[in-house]
Specification:
Elements lengths: L15 H6 L1 H17 L2 H14 L4 H49 L3 H5 L3 H43 L1 H7 L3 H38 L1 H6 L3 H38 L2 H14 L4 H38 L21 E9 L9 E9 L3 E6 L5 H7 L7 E6 L2 E2 L5 H7 E4 L10 H6 L7 H6 L3 H5 L18 H13 L5 E5 L7 H14 L4 E5 L11 E5 L5 E4 L1 H7 L1 H14 L6
Parallel strand pairs: 3-8, 3-9, 6-7, 7-8
Antiparallel strand pairs: 1-2, 1-4, 4-5, 9-10
């Protein structure tokens, strides 16, 4: 069987385009759907012929021929049904995969500011369960166009051919069922919205519990959180009951209303049999067709309500269905000497907040290590993030003469490496955590971060699994694996935010020497609150709490900044290094 191809599409926010995308599959659905539902009426017809042949005393060979024909006909009809269902399921699978690809791509292209305002549980609910509900509604709609619409039309035309009066009187109750379903759709829609919103909230609670499990356990909050979760689950259950019970409980009522017409069929049709206008076989055929049509009519009423529920999910995922964008593969990155120029840089995380940093200016070039330090909440990490170009910034950041925001996201990722506060390790092997799935030689970078000796003591070596978020490793090992990943490609600019917080000072100094010796083609921005190594780097940016900044070498800041000198001397004294100056 051919593999399912997942391809992007144009205008994914228009639901009709999902059927247009699967033209071949839709054509097959139409062909087999029409063939199955039109030929289905032949079953009751031949059933009636067989009954008449038996009742009328036909010879055995005629009865056998009719019986074999009837069985072969039923088998052929079911084969058509198989192919119809196969292609409808294929359409549903392809549509689900396409929607998820579009949503995934949309999330991957959101700015960090937009992602900061999104709740993970809400995104997961939309990308998984809302897609499933929406596609299920599309599948049911596609199925019932034929299994209900075409089949009901086929039965109705056949019944009209048998007798116009009996048919018109017996189908009078079907429109009542449709009207009742139409009235209920507003209520079901309202309850479904509340249920889907509560599902997102529950997903957020679960994600938060997993993300902060250690915090909650250490502080004895498990009982409190469990009680809160139970209350939320009860609320979800109540909303689920309202969303589903009304729809499902109405199905028997729909059946009763549509089947009221059978009274007319039995009375009028029985009269025709008694009067000799109909044979027993014709009556059986008519009765079977009417029951099948009435049953389909009741399901069509339920379908209206199911589609209404799917519409809720469609509206929830529609804003995330945007045309596919691929990351740029072309690169305008200059290969010449790397130069960074920052002028009057300012940045804030939200438009309604004040600047975290402002009027920051400095320059750097490859082969240099520029340190960034400062008092608490002075904007050290914000300065590092601003140099990635992922958040809007004021002023100018130019790399090799070109403004940072003018580079594509792909180009920035090829020029700049970044290590944040958290190691952000995958639940995978050491090798895959460093290479992120690429096939690369990592021996040298492991030596650069002093991890080669740790690795030698691990029986599985590079294939050692680090556990969820690196739980199987020490904090220092986690940090050095993340550092190795950041250094691996030796990008033009490498930004390290407090990379040595979990390593001892001897290891820190050795890594700094390795950076100076082996990364001369890179400009390294080193953010740290530990100043003892700053005497070994080129220049330093000291961020003050009043948003001013001092800039210079270690020796210059020791003379010009009382704050810097005080912190440095204190750290050297505590660390046992009295040769800082």
């Amino acid at each position: 069987m051919a593999k399912l191809k997942i391809e992007p599409m144009k205008q994914p926010a228009k639901i009709i385009n999902y059927w247009r995308k699967e033209k071949f599959v839709v054509v097959c659905i139409i062909i087999f759907g029409l063939a199955f539902n039109i030929s289905t009426i032949l079953g009751p017809i031949y059933q009636g012929k067989l009954i008449d042949a038996i009742v009328g005393g036909s010879n055995l060979s005629s009865i056998v021929i009719l019986a074999v024909t009837f069985v072969a006909l039923i088998g052929s009809i079911q084969l058509l049904r198989y192919f119809k269902r196969f292609y409808i399921r294929r359409f549903a699978n392809s549509t689900s995969a396409t929607m998820r690809l579009m949503i995934y791509n949309n999330i991957m292209h959101k700015s960090l500011s937009e992602l900061d305002n999104e709740k993970t549980g809400n995104l997961m609910t939309r990308a998984i369960s809302d897609v499933d509900l929406c596609v299920e509604g599309m599948r049911k709609f596609t199925t019932e166009i034929f299994d209900t619409g075409v089949l009901m039309a086929s039965y109705l035309l056949s019944l009209l051919v048998y007798d116009l009066k009996v048919t018109m009187l017996s189908v009078l109750f079907i429109p009542l069922t449709m009207a009742l379903a139409e009235k209920l759709k507003v209520i079901i829609y309202k309850y479904t919205i509340a249920f889907r919103q509560k599902s997102s909230e529950i997903a957020d609670i679960i994600y938060d519990a997993i993300e902060n499990s250690m915090l909650y356990r250490v502080n004895g909050m498990e009982t409190q959180n469990r009680a809160k979760y139970k209350v939320e689950l009860e609320d979800l259950q109540n909303k689920a009951i309202k969303a589903n019970l009304l729809e499902n409980s109405m199905q028997p009522l729909y059946n009763i209303i549509t089947m009221l017409g059978i009274i007319m069929v039995i009375y009028l049709g029985g009269t025709k049999v008694i009067n000799g206008a109909w044979t027993v076989g014709i009556f059986s055929t008519y009765l079977t067709m009417f029951i099948a049509m009435a049953n389909k009519a009741s399901k069509a009423s339920k379908l209206f309500n199911s589609v209404q529920k799917s519409e809720v999910s469609w509206k929830r995922i529609k804003p995330y269905l945007t045309e596919y964008k691929s990351k740029d593969t072309a690169s305008n990155i200059a290969t010449n000497h790397t130069r960074l120029s920052v002028e009057n840089l300012s940045m804030r995380y939200a438009a309604d907040r004040e600047n975290i940093i402002e009027n920051i200016s400095f320059k750097g070039e490859q082969g240099e290590i520029i340190g960034v330090t400062g008092s608490i909440a002075s904007g050290k990490s914000t300065l590092g993030l601003s140099l990635l170009g992922l958040y809007p910034y004021g002023g100018s950041i130019r790399i090799d003469g070109q403004e940072l925001k003018d580079y594509s996201e792909y180009e920035r990722s090829q020029m700049i490496s970044y290590l944040g506060h958290k190691p952000q390790l995958l639940s995978d092997t050491i090798y895959n955590n460093i290479t992120l799935g690429k096939k690369q030689e990592i021996t040298s970078v492991l030596k650069d971060v002093c991890f080669d000796t740790d690795l030698a003591e691990m029986p599985e070596g590079l294939n050692t699994l680090v556990g969820n978020s690196g739980i199987r490793l020490s904090g220092g090992q986690q940090g050095r694996i993340a550092l190795a990943r950041t250094l691996l490609n030796k990008n033009k600019i490498i930004i390290l935010d407090d990379p040595f917080s979990a390593v001892d000072m001897k290891t820190e100094e050795k890594i700094i020497e390795n950076l100076k010796n082996n990364y001369r083609q890179s400009l390294i921005i080193l953010i740290s609150h530990r100043l003892t190594i700053f005497r070994r780097i080129n220049r330093i940016i000291l961020l003050n709490s009043d948003k001013t900044a001092d800039y210079g070498t270690h020796n210059e800041l020791m003379k010009s900044s009382e704050l810097y000198a005080t912190i440095f001397d204190l750290q050297c004294t505590v660390g046992g290094d009295n040769n800082g100056k």
